[in-house]
Structure formats: C-alpha cells, structure tokens
Amino acid sequence: MTTTTSIARYLVQLKLCIALIILSSQLTDAFIPIQSRARQLFSTRQFIPHHGTIRRMTTKQASTKKNDDATSSIVDSFLESSDHAEQVRDDFRCGFVSIIGAPNMGKSTLLNALIEDSLCIATARPQTTRHAILGLLSNERCQVCLFDTPGVIGEPAYKLQEGMMEAVVSAFRDADVLLVVTDLFSTPIDDDTLFEKMKLSGKPTIVSINKIDLASKVNVAADDGTDKTVTVEEAVDRWRSLLPNALVVLPMVAANGALDPGVVALRRILTGGPNVPEALRELGRPLSGMYRDGFQFVTDDEAMQLLPLSPPLYDTDILTDRTERFIASETIRAALFELLKKEIPYCCEVQINSFKEPTEEDTKPVLRINASVIVERNSQKGIVVGKGGEKIKLVGTNAREKLEDFFKKKVYLNLSVKVDKDWRKSEDRLKQYGYIS
Known about the structure:
By secondary structure, the protein is of the alpha/beta class. It has helices at 3-29, 34-44, 58-61, 67-81, 107-115, 159-174, 192-200, 232-242, 261-270, 276-281, 300-304, 324-339, 378-385, 390-407, 427-432, and strands spanning 53-55, 93-101, 133-138, 142-148, 177-183, 205-210, 248-251, 318-323, 349-356, 367-375, 411-419. α2 packs parallel to α6.
C-alpha cells in the first residue's frame, strides 16, 4: 500500500467520523430549547455551521439533493468553518435582538417584515407564538439575530405557559438589544418584575409603537375609563416616559410589510445604516418623545454601536436555525388558529410524524408530510375533525397552500387527530414536544 493511498483512506475515514459526530450533535440539538442554544452561542461567539436549517432561496430550490450530497455538505461546511473568521471584515458586528411585548402586539408580523420573509406564524389571535424563534438579518457588515418571543403573561395558567415565559426571560437575558413592541393603545408588558429588569438592564432599547393605523378608527373624544392612549403622539410620549433611555420610539404598521416607513427605519437602525437619519425623515415630522432628551435623530454611528464586534454566528444565507419540520408544524398550527373558534386552538399541538422530500427519480416531485394534531379531550377531537371530517380537511387545505408557497413545491399533507389528555399541564409531554428542557 502506497503512502498516498494510506493518506487518502485516512482522510475518507476522518470525513466519515466528522459527519457522524455532527449528525449526532444535531439530533441532540433538536431537543434543546432555542433559548438554551442562544445562550451557548452568545457566550462562545463562535461560528456554528448549520445544516438542515432554512436558507434564503437555496433550501427551497435544492430539495431534491440525495442524502449522500447532504452528508458531504455537512462535512464540507465543518471543514470550511475554521477559515470563516478570516473571510469577514475586522469591524463586523453580530448580536441578539430580543423582541418582547404583550400578546397580540404584532411581534411575529414585525419580525417577518424585518427579514422580508414569512418565517413566523402570525394570526389575529393572541398567544399564537409559543417558542422563541430566531430570524436572521445579514449583510456584508453585520448579522442581526432577531428573536421573536411569546407574548408576556403576568400569571401563567399552566405548564405550557410557564415554559413560554421561560423562553421570554431567557431571550431577555441573552439580548444585546431589546426591541419592545406595543400598540397605539400603549398596551403594557404584563409582568412588572420583568419590565423593571428591562429598565435597569442598561441594554440598548428600541420601542416599536405598532398598529398606528388604528388611530383613524378610534373615537378620540370617547373615554372608556382606562389608561389607554388613543393617538400616536400620546403613545410615543407615554413610552418615552416609561423608557426614557430608549434610543428611539418608532411608530409603524408592521402589517404593511417590509416597505412600511417605520419598518424600513427600524431595519436601517438595527443593521447600522447607512443613512439612518434619511430613513427617519421618511416618517415625517419628529414627534415629541421619539428621541432622547437633547437628540433630534439617530446617527449611523449610534446605530452601528448597538451590536457588539463579533464574527457572524451563522452563514449569511441562513434565514433561521429552525428546521423545515418545525416550519411545517407551525404552519399547520396557524391554520388551526385561523379556522377553529374560541379556546380550541390553544389546546392543540402539531407533531410531524414524517417529512419526505422528493427524489430525483420522482416523475412528479411532491413533498410528503404526515402530521398529528394533538388535543386534550375527546370532545375537542370531534370539533377539530368536524362533521364527516369537514373541518380537518379545511385545515389541511389551508395549511397545504401555505406550505406550497413557502417551500415552492407541491405538498401532500396527511393530518390525523389524536388525544393526549392534559398535555399542556404535563412536564413530560412538554419536554417531549420541545417546550421545556
């Protein structure tokens, strides 16, 4: 056996070992709550090669690759990651921005608008978001790691809500920047302890006054006896008094999408410019309280200083560290929220049993997904299934259309409904379903 042959065999064996190690760690990672991974990354500031995550364009277009190509991609990513720090500029910045606010403030809608993609499910119902979900905003100068979090609940009613609030607290603790989202009515964060910690944390803070379009639908003269604000001017002034050190208080309508002037200004600030003052001028005449005392705008330098100097933690084409299976389960859950009334959607969990990508040999490429909708009672199962299976068929149709739009391919979706009694109150079940560690 020649020396060259021996070296070649050694390198092949080394590659296989590395692949097995990485695959094993990823299987373990699937059960680690997102906030735990965030703390790991935050403390180490190391680039982590991610495979199987949602990438901008590439994942949606490369769904027919064979498994051996996927394994090779993992190994190549690992072998190349050691040179990653040398490929970025010395003044590159990267950090975590945690989006925190009361339920139904439009936090998920805002994250989607900022990253210009439909990553997080967003419905008109409060408490749709159950997990802390990472969305990435990257360019040649910085990487913004945005965390969408569940709406803050003052007093959780069951174990699931306790796990959701743990995600919020963890996201607050790991944040480099806090993005507080409220609405025209200045809906407060319903946890005085958490809010006080936010005020005293010293972390750079930005306030988003979302849903300002409601101002045209409010009877300003009416007095309902509450402490709500009913104009944009009142809301901005209220939050300036609540968080006097906030860098900026930005009015916006996140539902208008990526081009809303408030969203554009916020994105420009988070990415450190360029031309932050120009984006802020597009909002019109500055309102009293938008900026800190003695300041009339936010400079590019101030915006750039928000995130710490750090190499990127993820490839720049990655949209999130969540898997395609997770996106599928969340999309199905969104359909349940949209089509079922009252409390039924809050009792539902969605588990993906199988997720099969089409292969090159398929004459009609179809992504095949088999999922279970889990409820707590037999009576709830009957409601979800509906008469003659009509309701679950509607849920499946709604979800399938959204999945096809996201994955850019035909989808076959099979749904079944199962009963798992009181799963929201069971610590074992919540661990199994990935809500707590």
